[in-house]
Write a structure and sequence with these properties.
Elements lengths: L1 H51 L4 H10 L3 H17 L1 H9 L2 H12 L3 H14 L8 H10 L5 H14 L2 H13 L6 H8 L6 H10 L6 H14 L4 H9 L5 H13 L6 H11 L4 H10 L6 H10 L5 H13 L8 H4 L4 H28 L1
Helix pairs in contact: 1-3, 2-5, 3-4, 5-6, 5-7, 6-8, 7-8, 8-10, 10-12, 12-14, 13-14, 14-16, 15-16, 16-18, 17-18, 18-20
């Protein structure tokens, strides 16, 4: 009897879930139809405005009033997407003439719920509405959103700030993140800075000028940003790496930077790091082993061969990868293959087997293409 009750209850739950899904399908379809209807109306209006050759005050007033509703803004977004695919430059010129409309809407959407507040800066970023136009009231309003406890609101606000291209506004946003108790993933900040549309050289100078005032977490973000953006900071990065009070995570980022952008004065520092840490801190050794791939020479080969005997798998793996990147041949590694260290021999055999497979695949692809 109890089993039958459980079965009936289970069937009832399944029926309720099916009914719920059916209702949701109809609701979403109805919303899509309304969205398409609004979008088609906007397409006609925008087309007519573009054909007339100028954005009138009446058109701006109409958009200011209409786009205060999120459903209309979503439809307008869909309209711009469709028209942008047809004629990007025409739509860019059109959007550039709507700065007064988006300035007004910035203040309006600031008052709305978190989801709606997050959507509006997404639009600003998506179409680069204020790129090269750092309007104070807009930047101040978007900066307030960076204080939000919602990750979505903060991230969309940051993306909007990066799209504006103001160094001062971007720095203020970073200060907010630096002091905030809400966690914002460092990789998201680094990737966002890479989207900065303004003067990156000026931004870099500002970041260095205020570097010591940032927390360790933000300092690491800044070094990672430099690693992905510019080779112009080698001397400063080396100074940071050799400073006495550098944090381990920041040091790792500095080593990765110097591994990406070869800087000869850094070579003795990198080899000293391996000599100092290979027996106690394997992370330093593993990261430096990867960095040495861009510092060819007999000494580098000798150091990497020695690291193949490390008891740590990550160190051996990175050392073998760097040896292959240096372009060594099988005959150059005979001493390793015939040595007594089975682990060193196996990791290098794996590397050469992997290289041979890739070469065969490349030959096969070339024959098929012919």
């Amino acid at each position: 009897m109890k089993v039958e009750i459980l079965i009936y209850a289970y069937l009832a739950v399944c029926a309720a879930m099916i009914g719920f899904n059916i209702v949701c399908i109809f609701i979403f379809r109805a919303k899509d139809k309304r969205l398409n209807h609004y979008s088609q109306r906007f397409i006609r209006i925008v087309h007519q405005t573009i054909e007339d050759g100028t954005v009138t005050e009446a058109h701006c007033k109409y958009l200011s009033k209409t786009l205060k509703k999120i459903k209309n803004l979503m439809a307008f977004d869909k309209t711009l997407e469709e028209l942008f695919a047809q004629n990007p430059q025409q739509i860019k010129d059109y959007i550039r003439q709507l700065s007064s409309v988006f300035t007004y809407l910035t203040l309006e959407y600031k008052k709305k719920s978190e989801i709606q507040a997050a959507y509006f800066p997404y639009i600003i970023h998506k179409y680069k509405v204020f790129q090269g136009q750092p309007i104070s009231i807009v930047m101040d309003t978007i900066l307030e959103l960076v204080y939000s406890p919602s990750l979505y609101v903060r991230e969309n606000a940051l993306q909007a700030i990066y799209s504006i291209g103001s160094v001062e506004c971007t720095m203020n946003a970073l200060w907010i993140l630096n002091e905030s108790s809400y966690y914002h993933h460092p990789k998201m900040i680094t990737d966002g800075l890479l989207n900065f549309s303004g003067d990156t050289k000026q931004l870099g100078e500002w970041l260095w000028d205020h570097f010591e005032r940032f927390s360790n977490r933000m300092q690491r973000v800044i070094v990672d940003y430099f690693r992905f953006s510019s080779p112009d900071h080698q001397e400063r990065i080396l100074e940071l790496l050799t400073s006495q009070c550098v944090d381990d995570e920041i040091a790792y980022s500095c080593i990765r930077y110097l591994g990406k952008f070869t800087y000869p004065p850094a070579y003795p520092v990198l080899t000293d790091i391996i000599e100092k840490h290979q027996h106690d801190q394997w992370i330093y050794t593993a990261i430096t082993a990867s960095a040495l791939a861009n510092y060819p020479g007999d000494r580098t080969v000798a150091i990497l061969k020695e690291l193949l005997h490390s008891p740590n798998w990550h160190v051996r793996f990175n050392a073998s990868q760097s040896l292959m990147a240096l372009g060594l041949y099988y005959t150059d590694m005979i001493d390793v293959f015939e040595g007594r260290d089975r682990y060193a021999s196996e990791i290098m055999r794996y590397r050469f087997d992997q290289k041979n497979m890739k070469e065969k695949e490349a030959v096969g692809i070339g024959l098929v293409s012919k």
